[in-house]
Amino acid sequence: SENIIEVKHLQTQFTRDDRKTVVLDNVSFHIKKGEVLGLVGESGCGKSVTSLSIMRLFKDTTGEITQGEIVYNGTNLLSMSENDMRQIRGKEISMIFQEPMTSLNPVMKIGEQLAEAIRLHLGYSDKLAREHAVSMLTKVGIPRPQEILAEYPHQLSGGMRQRIMIAMAMSCRPNLLIADEPTTALDVTIQAQILDVMKQLQADEHMSMLLITHDLGVVAEMCNRVVVMYAGRVVEEASVYDLFDEPKHPYTKGLIGSVPKIGQKRDRLDSVPGNVPTPNNMPKGCKFAPRCKEAMSICWEQEPAIAGVGENRFCRCWLYGEEGRGANA
Ligand code: SF4
Ligand code: MG
């Protein structure tokens, strides 16, 4: 297949106090080999849950995938044993999180952590693992890598720690890198540098990437294609060019409305007035209706299906007439 991963009709729910909440509803998308796919939307729209679902990693035990498939290189990850899944994580599919302090071990020197990951996944000897660690740190632009290897995470700046996370995630040459808001916690100059490093490494290794962000400036800079999520659903899918040239979904139009340049300080997606509905307080029809300037009566009654709206373009909106009406509602 030309796709490294295909997420098909994914449904994920959380259970708390016996109450089930569907947080991802019928989410489908694919990533081609060598492609960078952006996953965008406000916080709470299901982006991080999507990445945790792919990795089958939930912070607590209340998260559960109840429907769908995640086909990686032809195999459904959801039918794999936890043991086989452990072989996939880190080595085949790697992840970078927003806050590296939570994923670096505070009591282990950088060199030990990096070398351990490399030994574990690539089976290198100590000496080779160390050399590979040094070369990875050099690739992510860390000066004096030998010295950094002997330091602990708390001795380094946030930007340095994030570079180390990238080096660690990339050191096993994963086929797919999932980066969840990889630069959000960093100041703007560091942010741009880190994105440059990621872009370079991605191109060098012809790696596929799922880049999760709330920042459309980052998408424009980094991605080939974009999936826009809202309230646990995919609402639009398009190439980056088409999305910026002519956004179709009213939510996407709002997001595009005020895209800052990279490096410009801004608030989180503040261009769309109103808030994401909470899972337990979902509108009956289109989940965006309470914030949509273009809402019609049908929008309040029935949820539109995601449907083709042009070549390689998909949108979930009643504005697109008959195409919207293959309704799954
Ligand atoms: Fe707006 Fe209706 Fe389209 Fe929803 S379906 S985004 S409410 S026009
Ligand atoms: Mg998130």
Automatic annotation (TrEMBL):
Gene3D superfamilies in the cross-refs: P-loop containing nucleotide triphosphate hydrolases
Membrane topology term: Peripheral membrane protein
Cell location: Cell membrane
GO molecular function: ATP binding; ATP hydrolysis activity
SUPFAM superfamilies in alphabetical order: P-loop containing nucleoside triphosphate hydrolases
A Pfam cross-reference name: ABC_tran
Parts of the chain that traverse the membrane: none
Organism: Brevibacillus parabrevis
Entry GO CC: plasma membrane
Stated name of the protein: Dipeptide/oligopeptide/nickel ABC transporter ATP-binding protein
One biological process term in Gene Ontology: peptide transport
The family this protein is said to belong to: Belongs to the ABC transporter superfamily.
Domain ABC transporter: 5-256
InterPro entries assigned to the protein according to its UniProt record, in alphabetical order: AAA+_ATPase, ABC_Ni/Peptide_Import, ABC_transporter-like_ATP-bd, ABC_transporter-like_CS, Oligopep_ABC_C, P-loop_NTPase
